[in-house]
What we know:
alpha/beta
Amino acid sequence: MIIGIPREIKSNEARVAMTPEGVRAARIHGHEVFIEASAGTGSGFPDSEFENAGAKILNTAEEVWDKAEMIVKVKEPLPDEYDRLREGLILFTYLHLAADKRLTDELLNRRVTGIGYETIELENGSLPLLIPMSEVAGRLSVQVGTWALEAPNGGRGILLSGVSGVAPGRVLVLGAGTAGQNAIRIAMGMGAQVVVIDIDSAKLRYLDDIYHGRLTTLIGNAANIEEELERADMVIGAILLAGAKAPKLIKRDHLKKMKNGAVIVDVSIDQGGIAETSKPTTHNDPIFVVDGVVHYCVANMPGAVPVTSTAALTNATLPYILELADLTPLEAARRSPALAKGFNTYDGMLTCQGVADAFEIPLGELPLE
């Protein structure tokens, strides 16, 4: 199979969908890899490393898209790339369709086989291709949140860790999944007071156990959320419903009761965000203020640390890339129930329940029999 790796065009997105080692593995499996010139430079991989691994460097994105049977990306196609979508093309990337009706329609109308990293799901319910980026985003959320808390950025002007004789800041983490747990790890390491809210009592018991009671755990309900929002200096939104829109846990009215200069880092913005006031931002212009509350809503947070993120992403995606390339998409889906759940669109059908629910589009079924 011919695998195409175009350069990412999302603002400040320097990740690349495959490392040179990934290219080498694909070549060993007998596949060709075409990569756009300079696609890996931001992740620390010059074209020469890809060439040495067996890739062919093409000068333009058009060449890569036109020649490839399967396009492997990091982020979802942007409008400038829609005309490159075509019938029969396999697109393997983060899609997050439940937050993007136009892209959903484009994939359906152009009969693209769209497979989303974020909806591949193992039998135990874990999301193996989302985990590495959730780890990065969760840890990064506290790092960027402390920056946003600084007074020149509109924040409260507090040091999250506090100092001798001065109390540390208070961090509220909404969601105890991978991103939330990694945010907790960093915030606790900085000495902040940390509260986590989740509807899964088993996760809360686990976190209470490993932090020996130093972390406050609360069950997810409207009363607990509202009370803790009023007390928080920083809120990390880390809710994920696989393939579906994030629930709006922070209402516009809540902001008026929050501290002036408090910060919301909406890690869930790829899925629409957990705050009614959230809207996607970029690394060039990452924050905005509503009712005195600073919002950080960068839709590709791991893109800020592309060297780490690209390596972590390829570690997770490569086995699935090879599986799709070695077989036809349907054969791969038949052999791997986890991969089958990654199919969002196929032959003009929508095949992801969460996206169907988000847009009230009829749900089709993969012909796996």
